[in-house]
Amino acid sequence: xxxxxxxxxxxxxxxxxxxxxxxxxxxxxxxxxxxxxxxxxxxxxxxxxxxxxxxxxxxxxxxxxxxxxxxxxxxxxxxxxxxxxxxxxxxxxxxxxxxxxxxxxxxxxxxxxxxxxxxxxxxxxxxxxxxxxxxxxxxxxxxxxxxxxxxxxxxxxxxxxxxxxxxxxxxxxxxxxxxxxxxxxxxxxxxxxxxxxxxxxxxxxxxxxxxxxxxxxxxxxxxxxxxxxxxxxxxxxxxxxxxxxxxxxxxxxxxxxxxxxxxxxxxxxxxxxxxxxxxxxxxxxxxxxxxxxxxxxxxxxxxxxxxxxxxxxxxxxxxxxxx
Length: 323
Description:
Order of helices and strands: EEEHHEHHHHEEHEHHHEHHEEHE
CATH architecture of the largest domain: 2-Layer Sandwich
Radius of gyration: 20 Å
Strand content: 25-35%
Structural class: alpha+beta
CATH class of the largest domain: Alpha Beta
CATH topology of the largest domain: Ribosomal Protein S5, domain 2
C-alpha cells in the first residue's frame, strides 16, 4: 500500500491579465502554494483494468448533507483521477488500473483545486511507479514534457498540482516557475486559516462575470508588475510586507456580491483587523494570512477561533507546506 497526500492549492495572488485570442481562455498571473489541508489517497493495488475505490470517507469540512451525492461523483468517470489514469495509460502504453481508498478533506467548489490536486498526485504516483520502464524510452526532459502535456489536458490547475510546492503560475495555468529557495523558506510554515463557506462557487460563472465587467480583456494584455518585486526581497520582514500588498484576487468582489455568505465572512474577518483576507481561486474558500508577518500570536489565534466558532463557520487551521 502507498499512502499519498493530495494537498490543497491556495492562491496568494490571482490576477487576470488578458485573454488568448485563439481560444478565449483567460491569461493569469498567480502566486500559488500548497497547504497542509489534504485529501488522503491510499493506493491499495496496481492492477489491470480501470480505477476502483475500495472505500471513500469524508473530513469535517465536507458537509454531511452532500456526502452521498459527492461520493457518487467521486466514483463516476467525471472524477479527474479516472481521467488522469486513462490519459497516462493511453500516452505511455502501460496498465494503470488502481484500487484506491480515499478520504476527501478538501471541499469541492471552493477554489482549492481539490480535483486538480488529486489528478496531479495520481500522475506523480504513476510516473514514479513506471519510472524505470519509461526511462528506457524517454529522456528526463522528454518525459517531463509528456507528463506536462497530460496535466494541461486535465485542467488549468493540474500543472501546478503536478509540481506542487510554491510557484509563480502564468499563461492559462501551464507556465510554472518555482519560487526561488529564499522565497520558499519565507513561505514554508506560514500559518493560514482556511474558511469554508457552505455555498460553492462556480468557476465558469466567475470568469463570465469578470469578462462582462472588464471589456478591456478583448484588446489588452496587462503586465503584473508586483510579481517581479518578489525576487528582490532581502529579508523576511521585506517579503511579508510585500506579500501584504501583493495578496489579492480579482474574483473577490464579484464572488462576494454574488454569494452573500462569502461577502459576510470576508467582512467579518476584515473587521478583526488581524492579517490579510483573500479569496482562493474563484472561491468560495477564504484565506486569513498573518501578513505582514508569518505567524499569528496566541491572542490573535484565540480571537479568530472564537469569532468563527461563535458564528458557526467551519474552518481549517493550518499552514503553508512546501514539500
